[in-house]
Structures are given as structure tokens and as C-alpha cells.
Amino acid sequence: MSQAVLDGVRDLLPTIRERADEAERLRVVPEASIKELEEVGFFRLLQPKRFDGFEADPVTFYTAVRDIASACGSTGWVSSVVGVHPWQVALFADEAQQAVWGEDTNTRLSSSYAPTGKATVTDGGYILSGKWSFSSGCDHCSWVLLGGLVFNADGQVVDFKTFMVPREKYQVIDVWHMVGLRGTGSNDILVEDVFIPEAFTLSMSQTGACKGPGQEQNTSDLYKLPFHSIFTGTITTPIIGMARGAYAEHVEMQQKRTRAAYLGEKASLDPFAAVRIAKASSEIDAAWALLVNNIREEMDHVAKGEKIPLGLRLRVRRDQVLGSQRAIDAIDALFEASGGRALAEGTYLQRAWRDAHAGRVHAANDPERALQMFGAHEFGHKVDPGMY
């Protein structure tokens, strides 16, 4: 079934690419694209089988995201971050899973995990308030996952949790006016004094330990992977997809290009152009290979019933942040070598350049922090596994 989803996604790519300008004008992925992705089963890839999902290999999910982003960066980004949420919902208590999918297994969730909200402990749950930024794809979702610090009665922080909130209890504030990833509709979420039952929360200490109450119902190895491995991959994969799309357009453009400044030389006969293409393709391939191989290695440990080594989890993050940078470096090199026509509105290259650099500023792509932790672990220093 997973292959059928990939085939269905690939059939949609020409149409998704044609709608890229529309997504930018609307500042949100067109509803038709979301509906078509839903119909081919994309949003079910990481969803539990008991809710009509496929429980697919994460690499299958990443492959679909990569392909979508190669046609439209904004659509790939939204597909990735919305499409990964069923994986986390599967870790929540069964009561929360039933609330999301019990009546409609097509239900989607957006998110904003930075703990900019505040939750206070009360009987049976928490009172949540705050404003969260950058909830990509929220216009296409009827629930949201929000990060928040938990305070006790004495005002002390006692936990960091994800809170699952239904649409009628939050407000979407239209603030997304950006030059990159313009079509993602990454608007703000406002919550004011909403009661969240305990069952609709998940501690980051649990996900850091690769645990969650939902594992009682959803026993697949898929749901035993580290949160930070799965989720940070959803940020790098669209950028790799953008790089693949930029590469394809660059090669096509250069095959047709005549360089007036160089006495009518055909760009395809320029040896330096060939070198740039070789280097860019290697960077893109390396980013993808490392991401895929690392996730597969984690899956192998889980399949054997083994604990995933901290060193491997840190390597996932090391290669993830560097994978984003490799893909962006490739896009930069291709863009710079493409000539003035690459600046034209409607070209994939200029859009990929803007979208990839917008994706670069996501917190998951903070290279120094991830690389410092990897190096510290290699030197024998203690590193908190819950963050990786």
C-alpha cells in the first residue's frame, strides 16, 4: 500500500507544481492540493492501522515529502509537518486518539512546539494560555499540538508538555506575510484559559524516552522511535526536496541556455558548469543518504528490541542539520550559476532559493546546538537524551 501512495503522490506532482504560484498568492496551500494528497493516502502514512492508517516505514513518508517539495516547497513543507503529526498522536492516551480519529480518520492536526504558552496544574488536567507562532498548515486542520511549560501552584516549572487542543478552543491569527515558504499559512495560534484534560497531554520526558501511553494500543516499532529523530527529519526532508527540484530545473535551463556574455557559448558545453552540477548533486545525495541511513539504523535497533544508542540519536541530529545546510548550499550554487532568467517570477529556482532559506531558520536547523552536543558526547561529557 505504501508504494501505491508514493505512486499516487508522483502522479500529482505536475499539478502541485502548477499551483505553486497560487499557493504564494493565497499564502496557503490550495485546498485542492490537500484534498488530492488526502485521497491518495499521504496523510495516513504514519497513522495507526486501527484508524485506517498504514504505519509505513518513515523512509516512505520522507520520500513522499521529498517528492512533493520538489514540485512546490510550501506544499512539501506543509505536507511534512502536518503529515508527521499522526505519529505523535499515536503516543497519546487512547481517549485522545479516539477524540481525534474516532469519527473521522481524515482529521488533521497542525502544531507549534516552542513552549511559548503557560499551563497551570488543576484538577484532572491543566489550564492553558498563550500565543504560538508558525503553525504551518493550520487552515487545513481541526486540532493543534502546542508546546507549553507546566507550572505548579508555587509557580515552579514542573514539566514541558505537548497539549492537544480542538479547533473550537483556539483562534488562528492571520500574520503570515513572508518572502519564503509564503504558501505555508504558518499563522499564529491563540489560546485563552482553556482546560486541557490530562489524557490530552504528552510529556516531552516521555517522548524523549521513546515512550507514550498510546504504545499500549499502537504496538508497531514505528512508534518506538525518538521524537527528535522523526520530527527534525520532517524539517530537513522538504529542503532536500527543494534542492532536487532546483537541480532538475537548473539542468534543464542550462541545456537550453546560450551565454551572450561569452560569445554565444552553450552553457551545456561549459566545463565549469558541469563541475557545479556534479558538486551540487553530490551534496543533495549525501544529505538524503545520511538522513535515510540513520533512520533505518534506528529502526534496526528497535526491531531487535534494543535501546537506540545515544550516540546514534546525536548522529541523527548532526546529519540532519548538516543535511539542511548541504541542500541549501547546493541550491545557492545552482541559483548563482543559472543566469538572470532564474530570477523570473514563476521559476522554481528563485522560489526554492527563498523557501529553503526560510526553512533554514527553523529551530530544528540550529546547527551549532546539535553539533556541539554531538561533539560533547564524543568527548565523554554528559548529554540529556531527552532532547535528542
UniProtKB/TrEMBL annotation:
Gene3D superfamilies: Acyl-CoA dehydrogenase/oxidase, N-terminal domain, Butyryl-CoA Dehydrogenase, subunit A, domain 2, Butyryl-CoA Dehydrogenase, subunit A, domain 3. Residues 235-366 form the Acyl-CoA dehydrogenase C-terminal domain. Keywords: Monooxygenase, Oxidoreductase. It comes from the Bacteria. Residues 5-101 form the Acyl-CoA dehydrogenase/oxidase N-terminal domain. The keyword Oxidoreductase applies. The keyword Transmembrane does not apply. GO terms for molecular function: monooxygenase activity. It holds the Pfam family Acyl-CoA_dh_N. Belongs to the HpaH/HsaA monooxygenase family. This is Flavin-dependent monooxygenase.
